[in-house]
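Summary for the steering committee. One of the milestones for this cycle was to obtain a three-dimensional model of the protein with 2'-deoxycytidine-5'-monophosphate bound, which we needed before selecting residues for the alanine scan. The sequence and ligand used are listed below.
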Amino acid sequence: MSLPWENACVSCTMSETRQAIVTIDGPAGVGKSTISRLIAAELGFTYLDTGSMYRAIAWVLAESGKGTDELGHDEGLATQLQGLEMDLLPPLPGEEYGRVRIGKDVLGPELRTEEMSRLASAVSTLPQVRTVLTAMQQRMGEIGKVVAEGRDTGTVVFPSAAWKFFLDATAEERARRRVRQLRARGEIVPDEAALLKNLIARDLADRNRPIAPLCPADDARIVDTTSLSIAEVVEEMLASIRKHPL
Ligand code: DC
């Protein structure tokens, strides 16, 4: 199956100054988190998981009991979000993902359910949410030395990042990786076909939303990881970073 990223689908405004930031974008299940953590550790940079921020907002909004359709028309949403304080915390020992402190709550595994993946994707289409989170992410990256992972980090959040990557793999391969990851965590995957269907639906939603859609920046290096191991991807990316020092 071919991958749809022959060309970049948006132009980002690049500036002369290159920031000491690595951006790693791509669709769900491509291995971005593992790869981003390894690249950050290798470079001694801070890892900025922007997806976990969308998940945390999704969790807060789910707690408020409103549907995303309703939220899209909620005049008070922008004000509610402006007041929110968020911090990214390292994972607890034995945990795979970092935690998010949002207001008085500290969230971890509850952000990683399939339901929260679906909700985060829906919430990420709301302009009020994107405006607040993009500004927060830009503040977090202000001093540089960051590896930012997400969907729009190379196009919208950090257009001046010095090193931009877009990772991809076929939907079938990404679904297989996700099943392996869930099984390794001891979770039962009752319906692999449904998982693939959800992944494709989430891709479509992320790619086709009007604001900051998932797509490679025009200066991003696109890496097809379908038949590469994690170590091979990391090696290729580090070689590319080292070839283009600041
Ligand atoms: O990377 P993730 O699966 O944790 O992201 C969850 C959702 O958040 C994803 O479906 C789309 C959204 N997201 C986004 O719109 N922009 C980002 N920079 C990161 C994530």
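Key point for the committee: The longest strand covers residues 161-168.
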